[in-house]
Specification:
The protein is of the alpha/beta class and 255 residues long. It contains 7 helices and 8 strands; from the N terminus they run H-E-H-E-H-H-E-H-E-H-E-E-E-H-E. The strands form 2 sheets. It has a 4-stranded parallel β-sheet with strand order 3-2-1-8. The protein has a 4-stranded mixed β-sheet with strand order 4-5-7-6. Helix 2 (48-69) links the parallel strand 1 and strand 2 (75-78). Helix 3 (80-89) packs across helix 4. It is globular.
């Protein structure tokens, strides 16, 4: 029971920050967290020119419209480097973006400059991602992120919880383990412990970051069962789901 109480405390700390405006007592209540997100690989298939010309304005304007249409909609977007490009190329929209961040509608998530690889680079590289990423968020928006978000990274080293905890972060999430992980998915929501004993709250099975919501999830039998199963295993009746709010518009392949 002691480890369940610790895990509940970590989840309460992580899930009741800037992302969510209505804290939930996970000792007694059930909770289902929906994380709206638009995935952008600004250093892979989407080159910088296409990112600036197409992806960034669509991300800004599409979500501005969603804010007006849905009063409780909250959007998450990672990568301080993308925000720097927004400021340079779309200054008017960037100022409007600031107002949505101040209102808690748009959250600069992930803590990093980019959604970086964490296998090949040194741990120092990851530390600098957090240092420079959250420094930019703090300077520009007066907020920082408390989690590391790597939905599409191919693999995670055992020391990653140690590095992120050293950086002062509390949480981590990815959906990549569902892409045929050799070790499977160890848990949906739980405590990921590094080799030195430091730990972070980890979400390993939030569903596809491009997934959609087409009905009332309060009545969805699959997710209701997941919440019950999670609670029966850990004493924490909560689940966490990514869903995509970006357009699936890719540039033509270069021959």
């Amino acid at each position: 029971m002691k480890k369940y109480c610790l895990l509940i405390s970590l989840i309460c700390f992580f899930f009741t920050g800037n992302l969510f405006s209505q804290p939930v007592n996970l000792h007694t209540d059930t909770a289902f967290y929906l994380v709206g997100y638009a995935h952008l690989d600004s250093q892979w298939r989407w080159d910088y020119q296409y990112t600036v010309d197409s992806c960034l304005p669509k991300t800004l304007l599409d979500n501005f419209r969603l804010f007006e249409k849905y009063p409780h909609y909250v959007f998450n977007f990672s990568g301080a480097n993308r925000y720097k490009m927004m400021k340079e190329y779309y200054p008017a929209e960037y100022e409007k973006l600031k107002s949505y961040i101040a209102a808690g509608r748009w959250f600069p998530c992930g803590s990093s400059m980019e959604e970086n690889d964490v296998l090949s680079p040194s741990p120092e590289s990851t530390i600098r991602q957090v240092l420079y990423g959250n420094r930019y968020f703090r300077k520009e928006f007066g907020v920082t992120s408390q989690e590391y978000m790597l939905p599409d990274c191919f693999g995670f080293p055992a020391h990653l919880p140690t590095i992120l905890a050293h950086c002062g972060l509390k949480g981590f999430s990815t959906q990549k383990l569902s892409w045929g992980s050799a070790k499977g998915i160890p848990f949906n929501i739980g405590k990921w412990i590094g080799p030195d004993g430091n730990s972070i709250l980890a979400v390993f099975n939030p569903g596809d970051y491009g997934g959609s919501i087409t009905g009332d999830l309060n009545q969805d039998k699959t997710w209701k069962k997941r919440i019950i199963d999670q609670g029966n295993k850990t004493g924490i009746y909560a689940e966490y789901k990514y869903y995509g709010t970006g357009r699936k518009a890719l540039p033509a392949k270069k021959e």
